[in-house]
Design a protein that fits this description.
With about 375 residues, the chain is of the alpha+beta class. It is about 55% helix and about 20% strand. The chain has a 9-stranded antiparallel beta sheet with strand order 2-3-1-4-5-6-9-8-7, sandwiched between helices.
Length: about 375
């Protein structure tokens, strides 16, 4: 997987299932849990305490998970894991989009059009059903042809990465692994078509399409780092606000609220109090579905909720009022309005401008929005991406 450093994450997650995921776990007699999420909705899913990145990625790739949520009083101690999880989700969305794009391109190729004209009784299209066992046997038999095709696609990219003097050796390795991962995650049916038509006229055009699109998606993958930094910046900003507010209430002004950020003893006590009062910061990653979900494909929404103890009750009453009670603004305005002297405001603006610019360069639609519920100071920050 692009991005993970640890083999096992210790990060309590709520995974909300898609219909396919729900059906799968019910058939496996897995007891599903009913969660009350940060957006105040009840959803069914499973919870994980310890997991490998690969487990999460597999569930996402087969479209079993529609949302991942994590809620904590503080994120600093889990900084690397949360950033790696965020990167993993972005990479997985891109693998899925690349797979869908290539499948469509292959089906629209002259090779397939010609086959369909000459074989009207056995046309190849998006609705073609193929026996899984038969498919796996053919792919096993054609393993050499698949490796040859992968080599043809990757060789020019490998040469470019190897000669790129601006990359460190570790970064080159990451890029090489990432390019392989995109190809590995193409659906088996695509490889079946590629091997079936390896001697046909126009085969080289199919390979060229895979190569060109791979370069585009490798460029898109560069935003994963910016997204993870932005998510962590927002989480720590919310966490610091909560810690200082709680320290003020607990110590009645007898200690400097900033000391909670630097004094381990005070910090530990305040975090325990926030945990007890369930005043948590939540991050939710909502994933658009695969091709079956019209309009949501390729969409990722990351939402940060900073909730106080009366959040659920107050939010319900706010939701019942007119939307005029909501004050919406862009994230950039939100940062500019943070009082002077608050930590890392410049850092937030810095990440945001880099993220916006990086998305624009690679044709990813990016939007950020902040909703503030004035009645109870709940802040809901949403980052939306269409890949």
């Amino acid at each position: 997987m692009g991005g993970e450093k640890k083999s096992v994450f210790n990060l309590p997650l709520k995974l909300i299932l898609t219909e396919a995921g729900y059906t799968f776990f019910i058939r496996k007699n897995k007891k599903l849990l009913r969660f009350r999420l940060a957006d105040n909705l009840d959803e069914y899913g499973i919870s994980l305490e310890d997991f490998t990145p690969g487990t999460i990625q597999r569930l996402l790739l087969i479209d079993y998970v529609s949302k991942i949520e994590i809620s904590r009083p503080e994120f600093l101690s889990a900084r690397q894991e949360v950033m790696d999880l965020s990167k993993l989700i972005v990479y997985t969305m891109l693998y899925r989009q690349y797979d869908q794009h290539i499948f469509s391109q292959v089906l629209a190729s002259d090779v397939i059009k010609k086959w369909n004209r000459l074989n009207p009784a056995s046309i190849i299209d998006a609705k073609t059903k193929i026996n899984e066992t038969f498919l796996q046997n053919v792919l096993k038999k054609n393993q050499e042809a698949i490796l040859d095709a992968k080599r043809d696609i990757l060789e020019p990219l490998y040469n470019y990465i190897s000669k790129n003097t601006s990359l460190l050796p570790e970064e080159k390795n990451m890029q090489l692994l990432l390019s392989e991962k995109f190809l590995t995650n193409l659906r088996p049916f695509t490889w079946f078509i590629i091997t079936k038509f390896k001697d046909a006229d126009g085969y080289d055009v199919i390979l060229r399409t895979l190569r060109t699109s791979l370069t585009e998606y490798m460029d898109k993958a560069k935003i994963a780092e910016y997204v993870s930094l932005m998510v962590m910046e927002l989480a720590i900003n919310a966490e610091n606000t909560n810690l200082k507010r709680a320290a003020n209430a607990m110590y009645k002004g007898t200690v400097d609220p900033n000391s909670v950020l630097y004094d381990p003893t005070i910090r530990k006590k305040v975090i325990a109090e926030l945990e007890k009062r369930r005043e948590l910061v939540s991050i939710a990653w909502k994933l658009g579905g695969n091709s079956s979900s019209i309009g949501t494909q390729g969409k990722l929404q990351i939402t940060l909720y900073n909730q106080d103890s009366e959040y659920n009750e107050t939010k319900e009453s706010i939701d019942n009022k007119k939307s005029a009670d909501l004050k919406k603004k862009s994230l950039i305005d939100f940062y500019k309005e943070i009082p002077e002297g608050q930590e890392d405001v410049d850092l937030g603006l810095y990440y945001l401008s880099y993220l916006s610019e990086a998305c624009e360069k690679v044709n990813i639609k990016f939007e950020s929005l902040v909703n503030q519920f004035k009645d109870n100071d709940v802040t809901v920050i949403t980052l939306s991406f269409i890949f």
